[in-house]
Design brief:
The protein is α+β, with helices and mostly antiparallel strands. The protein has two helices and five strands, in the order αββββαβ. The protein has helices at 7-20, 73-85; strands spanning 25-29, 38-43, 48-56, 63-72, 91-96. A five-stranded mixed β-sheet has the order 1-5-2-3-4.
């Protein structure tokens, strides 16, 4: 079993990876430093957005990023705000990329 990173360390590593790929990314909401869940909102700068959260696949035992909500950016923001209202430990990261890059499919970010 692989060691689990704290949320704060994972977020810092993710932001660094985005910066190295010249993809603007920033923390919108800070959650619990140790075990807070993380949501990544991808803003494609055309009025649309997609928000991802990490899910656990019971069958394979793997963690994977899945779409939480997508559509008009305003609707995605409302959904994220609602989620944050009942999970104050939640981290929210916003990525801005016209090409739709979020890097969540890269090795090490599961």
């Amino acid at each position: 079993m692989a060691a689990r990173l704290t949320s704060e360390i994972w977020v810092a590593a993710y932001l660094t990876r985005c910066r190295l790929a010249d993809i603007p990314a920033f923390v919108v909401a800070r959650g619990d430093h140790t075990a807070g869940a993380v949501m990544v909102k991808l803003n494609t700068l055309d009025g649309k957005a997609c928000c991802y959260h990490r899910s656990f696949d019971i069958i394979s035992g793997e963690r994977q990023w899945v779409v939480h909500v997508e559509g008009d950016e305003a609707d995605v923001d409302i959904s994220v705000k609602k989620q944050r209202s009942f999970d104050r430990d939640l981290w929210v990261i916003e990525v801005e990329d016209k090409q739709g890059r979020h890097l969540l499919d890269e090795p090490g970010l599961e």
